[in-house]
């Protein structure tokens, strides 16, 4: 549905090359414009103003410092102009959906893989299931006995598997006495989709549908988990447990929304509330 506004999109590369002839605007290895990952954005004035104006704003108003090495010569390099497409939205038994996410997801997962990942989720879930389950949890909290210290971390006795980034009890390498599953090691020799990047001097991974798992009733959490390893438990745990300031070199901040068209969660919640009142 959308075009990636990055330096890996050949259309964007050609657009910038035509606007700035003779300049090496985009690094072909990283797809970045003088260090920036996107080619269109709001803000980011250092890629839109002249070097002199940025330096003056920095001196007088403590704004961001100019880009180093005087790389900015013929600004602006960025635009906030959107690309607009019209599509017919399909609802019903197989509704269309829209994935909106920050680059922390797209750094690791392609558009096609993200769509395939949500389609896999839909084979095991319905968009409104999470509303019904949350209502059940709230009813348990409302009508059940007082929460003990043992249950304080789980909100309700059966909600443990629905906490963000937990693995299902039947397959989780947890500490509750269960044996860890037999999973491929996340090393280059054991997993062809994990490799060493000599430029960044770091271990990297490729997202592939063959590593996808379905363990969450939240489609956004489902996408994030699979972008950071999926069934490769050791890889996922390693990526998620790196602490600041090193974490920024392993994973970017991630925000994900999945919108299912033709699904009215508010109406469903209201209907369930009314049904509960009638009971």
TrEMBL record:
InterPro entries: PP2C (IPR015655), PPM-type-like_dom_sf (IPR036457), PPM-type_phosphatase-like_dom (IPR001932). GO terms for cellular component: mitochondrion. Residues 1-261 form the PPM-type phosphatase domain. GO terms for molecular function: [pyruvate dehydrogenase (acetyl-transferring)]-phosphatase activity. Coiled coil: none annotated. Residues 164-174 have a biased composition (Low complexity). SUPFAM superfamilies: PP2C-like (SSF81606). PANTHER family: GM14286P (PTHR13832:SF792), PROTEIN PHOSPHATASE 2C (PTHR13832). This is PPM-type phosphatase domain-containing protein. The lineage of its organism: Eukaryota, Fungi, Dikarya, Ascomycota, Pezizomycotina.
């Amino acid at each position: 549905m959308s075009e990636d506004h990055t330096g890996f999109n050949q259309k964007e590369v050609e657009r910038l090359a035509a606007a700035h002839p003779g300049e090496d605007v985009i690094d072909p290895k990283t797809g970045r414009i003088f260090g920036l990952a996107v080619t269109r954005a709001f803000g980011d004035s250092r890629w839109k103003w002249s070097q002199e104006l940025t330096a003056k704003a920095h001196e007088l108003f403590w704004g961001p410092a100019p880009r180093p090495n005087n790389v900015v010569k013929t600004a602006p390099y960025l635009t906030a102009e959107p690309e607009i497409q019209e599509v017919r939205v399909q609802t019903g038994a197989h509704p269309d959906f829209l994935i909106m996410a920050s680059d922390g997801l797209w750094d690791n997962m392609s558009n096609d893989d993200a769509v395939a990942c949500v389609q896999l989720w839909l084979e095991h879930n319905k968009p409104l299931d999470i509303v019904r389950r949350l209502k059940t949890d709230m009813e348990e909290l409302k009508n059940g006995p007082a929460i003990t210290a043992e249950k304080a971390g789980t909100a309700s006795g059966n909600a443990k598997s629905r906490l963000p980034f937990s693995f299902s009890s039947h397959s989780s390498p947890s500490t509750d006495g269960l044996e860890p599953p037999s999973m491929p090691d996340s090393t280059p020799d054991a997993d062809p989709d994990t490799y060493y990047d000599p430029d960044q001097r770091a271990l990297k991974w490729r997202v592939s549908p063959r590593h996808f798992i379905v363990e969450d009733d939240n489609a956004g959490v489902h996408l994030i988990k699979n972008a950071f390893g999926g069934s490769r438990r050791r890889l996922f745990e390693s990526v998620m447990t790196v602490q600041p300031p090193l974490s920024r070199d392993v994973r970017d901040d991630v925000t994900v929304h999945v919108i299912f068209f033709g699904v009215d969660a508010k109406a469903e919640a209201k209907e369930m509330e009314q049904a509960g009142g009638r009971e």
